[in-house]
Here is the input.
Amino acid sequence: MKKLKKALALGMAGAMALSMAACGGTTSSGSTSGTGETAGTNNGEVVTLKWVMVGNGQPSNYDAWLEQINPYLEDKIGVNIDVQVVSWDAWDQRRSAIVNTAGEYDILFTNTNTYTNDVGIGAFLDITDLLQEYAPDLWASIPEDYWDACRVNGQIYAVPTMKDSSISQYVVWDKAAMEAAGYDGSTMKDLTDPELTAALSSQGLKDYLAENNYDDTAWPLSSSAATYLTFQYDTMGAGLIAMGVRYDDTEGKVVSIFEQPDIVKYLDLLREWYNDGIINADANVKGEDNSYKPAAVAQGWPKAAVTTWGPNMGVEAVAYKWGPTIISNDSVRGSLNCISNNCEHPDKALEFLQLVNTDSYVRDLLYYGVQGDNWDYTDDTKEWVHKNNADWSMAGYTQGSFFVVTPTDDFDFNQYDEVAKLNEEAEPSVLLGFSMDTTPVADQLAQCIAIAESYKSELLTGACGQFDTPEEMVDEMVAEMNQVGFQEIMAEAQRQVDEFLAANPPAASTAENAG
Here is the structure.
């Protein structure tokens, strides 16, 4: 991970005007850059880039925000930005429509769920040879391993967001609930520890929940289910939750994930908790997560308990790490920005993304909103930001590096220092940089994905449908997938993995292979 550490050090050093946003439209401008030269390289014209992302919808003060960010961008690189923030509930349908109809955009947020497929249909521009020419600081600010994680067939089609780009899972407790249960979360070694189950089923916890008028469920789940149970398996960008390679398996054996002993024990645990009422009876059909959870698993970093998880629930929270910290293609691809294959000015799009990831003022405007309304610097040093309100509706994780965001004065520490440390120390997946070419088995894969997804909410909540045990349900799911080509997919994946590892042999892992 030496190359990752080196690059991390560098990384730390209204309504939309749609008529102007069509894939890099231009407007005349006499603006100048800080060097006194005409901004941009388009004969004095300013390029307007349209960026589509997900969030809580268009900000109410969007026009005021444009009046702040666009003059700055125009002066720096001859660019104006036009952002469309699509609401969470409309995102999947809107994103799909955009990429499948070559919709008008220059930059699009995406993630691991759709990236490889969208590259395959030709939606995104290959930026491999453009990065170092037009965005050398961007290239240097992101670890080489992270760029490798974005490669599809050896080429780079996305700029990854430097954030909690490694996966660290934590059991997050309402501290008062944990104490009422008579439990010390710091002693937990694994979710299967009997002491954890005893705490979740304790009378003390039940009394605490009743006294505070909380739902009586100790470990609430929704139909999105406990997908975190398989986080130590690399799914190779194939999109099939039932197939992968364990992150530390240097032999790269492609396996049926839900049949592996380490996963079976977690499935049995969920079933036990579901039968005992620790997990809510409607988990498999519940559409939304509870806003309050006495205990749950969340991906993040330790101080997120103080800055995010606790405040979001209105309680004091504590968090205890479960499992290793891993960097994989999937973890890096949690937040990506891609340039449209139809973008007229990819050079300007890259220059803009370079500023988003290296310029703190641009990053602060995107992350916090309108200066003087949503936020202000606490003094002329600009070392801290004071948030005036929480009204800004853009989602910060979709935009750019966390490590150039100015921290807020809510706390006497910069929580992103903790994130950087986790990223630096993460164990790389043996398949970091590998994405499966799904073309040879595309039809079989689509059918298997549909089958696996149809079982997910029942299997990963412990409900198990009409089956008595998770093992019975997995057997039925695998049998169905086998009928439509699961074994063919596994064989093709294994062939490609073997070729990749032959050319890129992994370092010997010190972790025990559970597979």
The two ends are 24 Å apart (CA to CA).
